[in-house]
Amino acid sequence: MMKLARLLVDTTIEIPELIQEVAKTSPQVREIVNRIYNVVFRRCFQKRVRETTIRDAGLEFLLDVPLIKPFVISDWRRKVKPKPVPPRVPPKLFTKSDIIEFIKTYYTNPNTLRTYLSRYDNTKHKDTNSNIPDFNSDDWLDETFYSKMEEHKYFKAITSPIIKFIVEKHYDAKYHPIRDLLEKMRQSHQKFKDSEIIEQVKKTALPLKVTVEEIKDIFDNIAERSPETCDEKGNFMGMCSKDTMYLGILSGLYSIRGVRADFNAIRINPVNVNAKTDYPNYIDTMSGKIVIINHKTAKTYGAIEIEIPPKQLEYIKHTLTEIPRKYLICSTKSYDEPMVDLVGCGNNSFGKKVTRLFAKALNRKVTITDIRDAHVSGDFHNDTMTTAEKVERCNQRGHSVQTAMLYYKREETPEQKSQKKERSEKQKANDKRWAQKQRENRECLIQDD
Question: 403 CB contacts (<8 Å, ≥6 apart)?
Answer without folding.
Answer: 394
